[in-house]
Each structure stands twice: as C-alpha cells, then as structure tokens.
Specification:
527 residues, alpha/beta, TIM Barrel, M1 Pyruvate Kinase, Domain 3, Pyruvate Kinase, Chain: A, domain 1, seven-stranded mixed beta sheet, globular, disordered N terminus
Length: 527
C-alpha cells in the first residue's frame, strides 16, 4: 500500500493549530449569505460586510415593507460600486408564517405554569393573558398536549427570550395553553411555530406574490428563498409564477426546509429546487435535538451529490449580542463546512445583531480553517462513485478538470461558461483551489432591442462553494476562435494575479469549449 494514502487520515499537526491564519483575497471557499436589516442597511456597514466576505444579501420580507427594502437595496448597489465586490440578491418570502402581533411593543412577561390564550381576534391587545395571532385555523389544527413555540424573529437556544407552550384545551376559535418556562418577549412581532402540525396555508401567500411581482421583478432578484417548502409542488408552483414575470424566469428557487413535512418530501423537493436552505431554527423545534445533526449530514450529502447548493442557517446565534461565538458554535460552523455545506446563512446575527461585520469575518475565518482539512480525496471518490458510469459528457470533463488540477497542484481552475452549468459541475467535485468562472455574455434579441445575458449566471454562482465569477467582455464569445479565447484568458489571469490567487510559475487548469468539443488544458505561467 502507498504511504501517501495515510497522509489524509493522519492527525493534524498540533503546531499547525498555533500558526496564525493567513488572509487571502478570497476569505473562504464557503460563501456567506447575510440578512440586511435595521443594524446592517447603511452603505458603510454593507461595504464592511462585502469586504468581510458576504457574497449574497438576503432581504427578509417577514419584516419591513417594499420601500424599506428598496432603500436597503439602493445602499447595497452603492456599496458594490465602491468596494468592487459582486453580490447577489435573495428575496425571502414570509410564507405561511404564524405571528403574534404585539401592537404596543411593550415587553410581555410570562410565568411558568400560568395560562395564555391564543386568539385569531387581532383586535385584542397582546398581554401576558392573551396573544392575538394572524391565523384563524389554529384551533382546528391542534389538540390537547401539542407543543407551540413563540419567540422574536426565531427561537434561540436560550429560553428566556422565547416561550414554550403546551395546548391545554381548545375553546371555539381560541386555544388555551399552559406556559412551560418563564420568559420575557420583546418586539412588535413574535413568530409562532406549532411543532409537527400541518398548517393549512399556501406556501406562497398573496402578500408574497405581490412582493415578488413588484419588488422582485423590478429588482431582478437572483434567488427566491421559498419559506416553509413542504412539497415539490410548492417549488413547481413558485417556478410557474416566476416564469410569467419576464426576467424572473432565470431566478433560482431555494427551498427552505423548516418542518417535518418538508423533511418527509426532501428527495422530491431537491429534484425540483435549484438549492436547499436548511432552516435549523424551526427544524430544531420539529425534531428532537439528538436528530438535528443527522438531518443536516444526510441533507447536505444529498445536495452535494445532486450538485445543488446546500445552505445552513442558525450557526452563531450568540454573536447577535456578543463579539465572539461560543465554542459549540465555532465547532458547528466548521462541522457544517466538513459536511460539505456551500454557504452559511446569517439571520438575526446580521439583521439586528450588534456586530454584523465581525460576525461575517469570524464565520469566514472558521470556514477557511475547516476547508484546509476537508478530505477532498474521499469526497471526490464518493461523488464519482455516486454519479456512476457512463458519465455525461459535461460531468466527465468537470471531474477530469478537478482531478488534473489536484494532480498538478494548480493554483486555480479557470472555466469559460455562458450558462454557468460547467462551472457549477466543476465546483460539485469540490476542488481544493478556487474556480474562476469567466461568464461569457450572450447576445439575445426580442426583435425590438438587444440585451445581454450573463449577469444572472455570474451572480448565481456567488452561493456555490469555491466558485468566483467574473463577467467577460461580450465581444468574446465562449466557443469562438482560439485568438479571442486567449484575450479573455489573459483578462482572467490578470484578475487572478491582481487578487493574489495566481503568481508566476503557477500552473493553471483551463476548461473551455472549442467548436463542439470541450477541452481541459494545463498551462504554466511565465514570469
């Protein structure tokens, strides 16, 4: 047996743990999605977030109206211009989210063993005895003994800011519950989650449709995060709705799995969606704590094998109020990377947290360290085995490019692509070096005007681990003569040099189309 095989499985040298982390142009291969909100919507803070490593900005429509989000988006555009860092836009629907409305915004204290009534009568004031909710069908959905959680934004692990109720009796439309823990709820809206109970509401509400067709269409969103996806049909309906909205036909749909229902239909949902968001906040309530990690590992593995991005949420909750994550959180981020996650989604941590920029850079540093010990060799073999034979033409080119890059210790893989598919397939094999996807714009016309495609494809790779897009000059088509490809390649290499990824005497693997053939070539850079 070769001695090389043991290198991967050897314990990490203790000395290497003490070496300071090196910073590089690409802070980490794993991407970071940041939610923009009250604490992170100024040009100054957004610029800081982009520099720290955020590559997708999430707009959560559970809070704030279209004008509020438009103002934030204009600030994002200004920040992209000044920092020269690309950033994609994700619209997160409210979905069938149950909420308690606290009009007075006064803190509400609840004591263990007291009772509280949930009522659909929204005219009532919220108090420690009555919670008005935005759904009339709760009394029909629950029974005595069921569990209901209520908290601000999402439930944290600390049960002083969220409350756990047990249904005691159903009186007409009202549900009377016993409070299981003492807590103080603050804010104007509390999310309500009934554990393992089917809520009979559409996944895309009328309000969501209105937001998508106005704000979403006007701003050509890159991603739609479909909250509370429960069936593959939910994704199909959303896709059909988007296809009628002009450019939004190109928007990618990420199914957000946040209940046992979504979990049961996971395989069918994965087939239909462009990517998956594992919403561990709500899932952590539907599943017993000892099962959460199992779901994460299984779901991420399935996404990896399908070549679709997997996004993990709720990783550093404590950084909402603190400058440092807990030990468990730091380990959790690293484990998500080792499991194969493409991106980490930060919610409350950047939305209303005190340290949005520090949170992004801390998560980025942990991801970068974890990537150094990711077992690429084992992962590559597993993926090739899973894909099986005969491989499709593109898949075999992509896996060969990655294998070649690792064998020659290339510093970067450059992929010319117009649809982005080839670059995503290369990233699926998780190369240890960054993949520069040079997106070649395509000219299209509707007989009235010319337009270029390519910007969507470039931005959509900002959520894929290891993929770093750049838009090529539209005068260079992807499949054309060698000469024009050489000039695009020069631009890509200059970009690589400027960002410190490539230096002289490095080897670079290039994947491109020449005529009808796909070619993988290895070049060595001169001085």
């Amino acid at each position: 047996m070769h001695s090389n095989h043991l290198l991967l499985e050897e314990p990490i040298r203790m000395a290497s743990i003490l070496e300071p982390s090196k910073s590089s142009f690409f802070p980490a291969m794993t991407k970071i999605v940041g939610t923009l909100g009250p604490k992170s919507r100024s040009v100054e803070v957004i610029s800081g977030c982009l520099k720290a490593g955020m590559s997708v900005a999430r707009f959560d429509f559970s809070l704030g109206d279209a004008d509020y989000h438009q103002e934030t988006l204009e600030n994002l555009k200004a920040s992209i211009k000044t920092t020269k860092k690309l950033c994609a836009v994700m619209l997160d629907t409210a979905g069938p989210e149950l909420q308690v409305v606290n009009k007075s915004e006064q803190p509400i204290s609840l004591k263990a063993d007291a009772t509280v009534t949930l009522t659909p009568d929204e005219g009532q004031e919220a108090s420690s005895d009555v919670f008005p909710i935005n759904f009339g069908g709760l009394s029909k959905a629950v029974k005595k003994g069921d569990t209901i959680f209520i908290g601000q934004y999402l439930f944290t692990g600390s049960e002083t800011t969220s409350v756990w109720l047990e249904v005691d009796e159903v009186k007409g439309d009202d549900v009377v519950c016993v409070v299981k823990n003492s807590a103080t709820l603050t804010g104007s809206l509390f999310t309500l989650h009934a554990s393992q109970i089917h809520i009979d509401l559409p996944t895309l509400s009328d309000k969501d449709k209105e937001v998508i067709s106005t704000w979403g269409a006007q701003n050509k969103i890159d991603f739609l995060s479909l909250s509370f996806t429960r069936h593959a049909e939910d994704v199909r309906e959303a896709r059909e709705f988007l296809s009628k909205l002009g450019d939004l036909g190109q928007t990618q749909i990420f199914a957000k799995i946040e209940s046992v229902e979504g979990l049961t239909h996971f395989d069918e949902i994965l087939q239909e969606a462009d990517g998956i968001i594992l919403s561990r906040g709500n899932l952590g309530i539907d599943l017993p704590p000892e099962k959460v990690f199992l779901f994460q590992k299984a779901a991420v593995h399935k996404c990896n094998m399908a070549g679709k991005p997997a996004v993990v949420t709720r990783v550093v909750d404590s950084m909402t109020d603190n400058l440092r994550p807990t030990r468990a959180e730091a380990t959790d981020v690293a484990n998500a990377v080792l499991d194969g996650t493409d991106a980490i989604l930060l919610g409350a941590e950047t939305l209303r947290g005190l340290y949005p920029i520090e949170t992004i850079s801390t998560v980025g540093r942990i991801c970068a360290e974890a990537e150094k010990v990711f077992n690429q060799d084992l992962y590559f073999k597993k993926t090739v085995k899973f894909v099986g034979e005969p491989m499709t033409h593109l898949e075999s080119i992509a896996s060969s490019a990655v294998r070649a890059a690792i064998k020659v210790k290339a510093s970067v893989i450059i992929c010319f692509t117009s649809s982005g598919r080839a670059a995503r397939l290369i990233a699926k094999y998780r190369p240890t070096m960054p993949v520069l996807s040079v997106v070649i714009p395509r000219l299209k016309t509707n007989q009235l005007k010319w337009s270029f495609t390519g910007a969507f494809e470039a931005r959509q790779s900002l959520i894929v681990r290891g993929l770093f897009p750049m838009l090529a000059d539209p005068r260079h088509p992807a499949e054309s003569t060698n000469a024009s490809n050489e000039s695009v390649l020069k631009v890509a290499l200059d970009h690589g040099k400027a960002s410190g990824v490539v230096k002289s005497h490095d080897r670079v693997v290039i994947c491109q189309k020449v005529g009808d053939a796909s070619v993988v070539k290895i070049i060595e850079l001169e001085d």
